[in-house]
Amino acid sequence: MSTYEAKLSKDGHVYTKRDGLVGGLNTYAVIQPHRKVRSVDEDSVWEAIVIGAGYAGLVASRDLVKVGKKTLLVEARDRIGGRTWSAEVDGTTYEMGGTWVSHVHGRLFAEMQRYGLQDQVMTTRTEDGGCSYFTLDTGSGTRKFSLQEAAEMTARAWRIFINIDGNEGRGICPLPHSSLGNVRVSFDQIKAVDQLSCRDRIDQIRHLLTADELALIESLVPHCGGGSVESISFLEMIRSQALQGYSPETFEDIWTLYKVRGGQSTLARRIFDDAVKHGLQYAFETPIKSIREKDSMVSLTTVSGKIYRAQRVINTIPIAVLPTISFDPPLSPLRREALEINQVCYLTKIHAEAEGDLRGLRGCTWPGDFLYIYGDGFCAGGRSTRITSFAGDNRGVLDPLKEPERLETALQRFHPMNIKKVVFHDWVSDPYAKAGAAWYPAGFLTKYLAELQKRHGNVLMASADWAHGWRSFIEGAVEQGALAANVVMEELGVLGANPPPGTLAKI
Amino acid sequence: MSTYEAKLSKDGHVYTKRDGLVGGLNTYAVIQPHRKVRSVDEDSVWEAIVIGAGYAGLVASRDLVKVGKKTLLVEARDRIGGRTWSAEVDGTTYEMGGTWVSHVHGRLFAEMQRYGLQDQVMTTRTEDGGCSYFTLDTGSGTRKFSLQEAAEMTARAWRIFINIDGNEGRGICPLPHSSLGNVRVSFDQIKAVDQLSCRDRIDQIRHLLTADELALIESLVPHCGGGSVESISFLEMIRSQALQGYSPETFEDIWTLYKVRGGQSTLARRIFDDAVKHGLQYAFETPIKSIREKDSMVSLTTVSGKIYRAQRVINTIPIAVLPTISFDPPLSPLRREALEINQVCYLTKIHAEAEGDLRGLRGCTWPGDFLYIYGDGFCAGGRSTRITSFAGDNRGVLDPLKEPERLETALQRFHPMNIKKVVFHDWVSDPYAKAGAAWYPAGFLTKYLAELQKRHGNVLMASADWAHGWRSFIEGAVEQGALAANVVMEELGVLGANPPPGTLAKI
Question: CB-based contact (8 Å) between A253 and chain B?
């Protein structure tokens, strides 16, 4: 049980046959009242304004107020967490976006240790229960495998796919936090690999795979990177391989096994509440329309026309949403080119509550509806199963916003089931996300990543979308928020434990 | 080139035939003047006193002053870094203790990112150069292998050694930061494994190994854990395996490959200088003899009789040295029992400068002198090689303090060589270390670890010696320092960006 009270957010949807599609879900992430700004500070110049209350913004805000920087957090939504939040529906917690944690995500794990949550984890999938098998349905027939058979086939296919350097990625990506060039591999070597899409790579190794292995890698890659095998850079798969320890055996444990027991929003709340305790002021439901810098002062104009001013701004707006913000002076041509190309992740994570025990269910129906589905433990009460599914790029394929009732048919290709409800967040139609976690096409990173990471005058750009290491992960957001906050501290100065100015003379 | 000036520390020794054994080495870690305490604060009650300027103490101090806590750092030595420091000798940097870094050490890597050092790394061993082979000399004959042969034999032996659960440690230690019990493995399961010494485990698998593989595992285990195979708990080897990603292939990269280009002391200096900039006051060459708490106030008495008082103390004194400190009230019987048993790491790291190119040299002469040696790149000038060697428990075997000239004979068992100088820090005879990194005997952790981690009234105990995750690593020190500082902040309160008390009424 959480000590927080779940309140209704505008975000997320639930579908039931009885009530149809209903927008808005309860979550610990909603902040009410939505605004806390002291009247004396309202029109003052803030030391820092942080745009966005996802993990990057939360960590940056918390770090800044703790050292005494007068900070305003502005957020378009009614809740914290950005692309990571958990909904509470009839006693069951659903992770609507970013989910997984591990000690290998060092900064995120440090946050969990800081707030005493390091052991408050649970495993995402459970192997016991009924229907413990893997369905592979490629449109040209359905096969069922044991979970172990499927894991072994997937591991073999992945090893062949990733092994472009004869050393399972160690040669090309020995240092995944400096994946575009480092003490061991030159930028030029990496640039050559960055020209490959995952499709290019699959074409190189296709003859080494069985038809089933090929089908598995064709669904695994877009499940990881959210786009299509054509649109995702192979280099990003190598970086993932490196971050996961170069081994399919540890891959799942590090990437997709553990989640926060009370839901991600209970961790986000701890960071937010810590920040508020230390003086953070905030305005939710406050989308920004423009950012202007003149004479070193940054002015933000909200959609409703209110202006906030600050010495420094930490902007955590995702790459897909940045083009909706007007910048003066304008963003560099190179950055605008990058925004124009954009990231490629358009998968949709959809939860279903299915009657009975389907905890062991796994599989994919791809090409088709689902890149991957898995049983994710019982729902509250223990008589129904939470099934988590990942629809491929939903723009025109399986769109739960348009045809939520189709989900039942789609899931029944795995096993006969009776679905009680469907719970999801459609990130693609969400105006403050417009896409999922950021993954990029071939050639993008070596050309644009450094530019995306650059500051724009006194606007620091901090997002998991262009993190150094765990790009597109919660960990990457924490990295970016912490580093940006540190730059602000360095530039504005922190009094710390020094005597306040003027007091030395009095001693 | 470092921007710091290397100054002479009392720590470390250099031996040359011409000058014999000389104590004291130059390092960026020396802090001069050794004391900075404002006269008004001298006899005041500090909010926090941090004992020890190793990584735990540096991080705790930096974090505390940055949020405005009036903090005094007291350190027995004339330098920062504790059991991790780098010496500068004739233009060459020697790592005298803790050395290696990796992005998998999440908190340490975050420090490197914070100070812009994430790409300022170099690899410890180089494979090129002359003498690229591995010597295995067990006293009953010498064999030479290619580096790859030796790596493969070692990996095979390690896999068999570690595989007690049929899953290479994943079963017993899925969550190495909660290695004594977690959501997947019960404390009782772990307690059973904790009864095994590494000798017990070797006896179980001895029949599966060749004589050479057995010799390699018999030297690898004490090289990792610093004691003997009899004295080191097998459970700690499983934790190491888990932290390294369960794979001998990633083991070296994570554990022993990358070091800070300018030496560890350049990283430690950045943390220290950052703390000083934010108001840290400090007293080096100030060993403590007693810690007393009365009416919630903690008093420290230095060896020279000076008393410092604080609301909270963060004590980072290593386990082997803690018994030299008098506590009032006394430490708990259980903790005293743990201190009595103590840790087991008594290996000695010894560097030699050898003429010519011996960069590829590797090997071990064990049982005997060396658990492991490796060529570690050229010394300044490029005409001699830095050879790093690890002598087993040196109390009576190879003791460079007593017989430094014997080192040349011992190293010549690997290859004919002419040694120009020997550089080392004898941690065992060092009164402020008394041992190396902390590794423990069978049965110790499940009985004492939780007790060692406990606070003693208002004295928080923060040391890598009892860290949760990377126990005995720099990463563990950073973990402990950060967590302890956070407890102090929580308990004493941090004003942060809140209006100073009394100002609200004036608005």
Answer: yes
Q: Evaluate whether B79 touches B31 at the Cβ level (below 8 Å).
A: yes
The closest CB to that of A106, out of B66, B70, B110, belongs to B110
Lookup result for tokens 């042969």: B149
DSSP code of B331?
P
Taking CA–CA distances from B120, the nearest residue in chain A reads: A183
Give the tens place of pLDDT for each residue, B169-185.
999 999 999 999 999 99
> In this structure, what is the dihedral angle of CA atoms B110, B112, B117, B120, given to the nearest 10 degrees?
-100
Helix boundaries (H) for A18-146: 55-66, 106-114
Alpha-carbon distance of A213 to A160, in angstroms, equals 10
Q: Which class does domain B7-14+25-85+263-343+435-492 fall in?
A: alpha beta
pLDDT greater than 60 at residue A506? no
- Is the omega angle on the peptide bond into residue A33 within 30 degrees of 0, that is, cis? yes
The whole-angstrom distance between A367's CA and the closest CA on chain B is: 33
* Most A CBs within 10 Å, among B278, B470, B479, B492, to test the A interface: B278
Query: How far is Cα B495 from Cα B102, in angstroms, rounded to an integer?
Result: 35
Residues 89-118 of chain A with CB under 8 A from chain B are: 103-107, 109-110, 113-114, 118
B211 has binding-site annotation: no
Looking up tokens 């803790």 gives B98
Contact A53, A73 (CB under 8 A): yes
**How big is chain A by its Cα radius of gyration, in Å?**
23
Helices (H) and strands (E) in chain A, counts: 14, 23
DSSP B67-83: TT--EEEE-SSSBSBTT
Whether B506 has a pLDDT exceeding 80, the answer reads no
CA dist., res. B209 & res. B218, Å (int)? 11
- Answer yes or no: is B157 a known binding residue: no
Instruction: Classify residue A351 by its DSSP letter.
Output: E
With a cut of 50, say whether residue B507 has pLDDT above it.
no
Class level of CATH domain A149-256: alpha beta
Residue whose pair of structure tokens reads 């009036």 in the numeric block: B70
The tokens describing A200, both together, are 């290019």
Amino acid identity of B76?
Answer: A
Contact in structure between B136 and B212 (CB atoms under 8 Å): yes
The domain limits of chain A are 7-14+25-85+263-343+435-492, 149-256
- What is the interface pTM, i.e. ipTM, of the complex? 0.97
Looking at residues A405-425, what average pLDDT do you find?
92
Element (H, E) at A313: strand A307-315
Tell me: is residue A87 an annotated ligand-binding position: no
Give CA separation, B422 vs A59, A94, A254, B381, B437, in Å: 47, 61, 43, 17, 22
User: Across residues B87-94, what is the average pLDDT?
Assistant: 98
Q: Kindly determine whether residue B65 and residue A497, on different chains, have CB atoms separated by under 8 Å.
A: yes
Judge contact between B173 and B185, C-beta under 8 A: yes
Confidence of residue A482 (pLDDT cuts 50, 70, 90): very high
Task: Dump pLDDT digits (tens) for A253-310.
Answer: 888 889 999 999 999 999 999 999 999 999 999 999 999 999 999 999 999 999 999 9
Give the model's confidence band at B504: pLDDT under 50 very low, under 70 low, under 90 confident, else very high: low
Which pLDDT score is estimated for A404? Answer: 86
Whether chain B has a CB inside 8 Å of the CB on A482: the answer is: yes
- pLDDT for the residue A131: 83
pLDDT digits (tens, 9 = 90+) for A175-214: 999 999 999 999 999 999 999 999 999 999 999 999 999 9
Cα angle at A82 between A76 and A85, to 5 degrees? 125
Contact at 8 Å (CB) between B229 and B197?
yes
CA distance A240 to A198: 13
Higher pLDDT, A501 or A433: A433
Measure the CA–CA gap between A18 and B105, rounded to whole angstroms.
51
Residue A507 pLDDT: 46
